[in-house]
Design a protein that fits this description.
Elements (H helix, E strand, L loop, with lengths): L1 H20 L9 H18 L5 H19 L4 H29 L10 H27 L11 H4 L1 H19 L4 H81 L3 H12 L14 H17 L2 E6 L9 H19 L6 E8 L5 E9 L24 H12 L3 E7 L4 E9 L2
Parallel strand pairs: 1-2
Antiparallel strand pairs: 2-3, 3-5, 4-5
Helix pairs in contact: 1-2, 1-5, 2-3, 3-4, 4-5, 4-7, 4-8, 7-8, 8-9, 8-10, 8-11, 10-11, 11-12
Length: 433
Amino acid sequence: MAHFLGFLAGYCIEGLAIWLYSSVFTPRKRFFERIILLSVSYLSLALLSPLDLKWMNAVLYLSANFLFLYLCFRLKWYGALFHSILLTSVMAMYELMVYSIMDRFAPHFYQQTENFYLSFIYLISSKFPFLLTAFVFALAAGKIKAGEKSEKGALFYIAVPFSSAFAMVLFIGILENYVLSDRMKQMICLAAIILLVANIVMFVAYLYSQRKNEEYLQTRLHLLREQKRSEYYKMIQEQNDNQRILLHDLKNHLSTLEMYVTAGDNEKADEYIREMFHFDGFKPSLVSSDNDLLNAILAGYRRECENWGIRIDADIRSHSVDFLSENDLTTLFGNILDNAMEAAKGVKDGYIDLYVYREDDTPFLVVRAINSCECNPFESDGKTLRKTSKGEGLHGYGLKSIRQILEKYNGSMEMHYDGDNNCFQLTLLLDST
């Protein structure tokens, strides 16, 4: 009975370990459904444990964890399999270390089913370190939500924990069925420690690969967005060119209309007027500076801001941005206006004011953006910007892009939030030399 109670208490701790470990994943099932599935799974494991079949217990434990993670959380099957095998191998290694140490002082203690004292020591010594390790793993994985970003490359990382779990069960079987010297038991314990370290290293490598994959994906998405944005601005710029051409040719169009009207051919005159309304040049365009690309950028954001009820004004001095390349101009003002528009969305009478000018008698360009912002975007230290749920704008890769441009032009950046007026101010200083 004492032996079974030890099993039951051990499975309770192991269930708590997988519960803590799974807390970093996005649930697929409701809270009570997860509790019920986990409880039924581990109660079944506890009822089967007196059969004392090591291989079967290990396989069932791994299967229970896999089903719990795969059914209850938004994980791919290979991600759930990796985490299940990792937990199984770590649990088996702690059991082996404790088993080999205790077997030196109480040979074959595992077969002494009524010795509650030995069962309790074994339980405390093996399960609580496993619980602590699962908690630490969860903290590390939670930094990047590793399991949710698992690629099929996770199958590669399964090799080490799977081999470790196999070796641990094999070693425990040897200790139970054969009489080994103290030196051999020490070697087995050392092997368990080495394999534990190997699994920790593999787990760290897995997290590192997931972080790199995520950074690569975000970079690709960011570059693609910049590319699409640049293409869009070029399209607007072409539209502005068509408008200038149309205005230049307007005299000829009016002469043609006059000819139709004078000839009394009103039908052709009406048809010609309808065709003129479809000319690209008649589409509205707002000119804010003497830089065509910057005008196109601002025109695009003005149209989007209108949909959100955001007023956007720009004061851009002549030839102030001539030294910036088209890519830098697109990235710089695109990210500035992205962040300003995101902050001004949903704010009553939201606005964005943009000022771009050269400091008198200096080579420095000043870019100042002031936008409405209903809540303080800084952390408690007053310096670090809070990350948004999407990780976009100045809080994510947008800020990295702006900083890269500032480094390129030996620039600097200042940010300030005015709580009295609920506005955010960004000031950039770039060297045009």
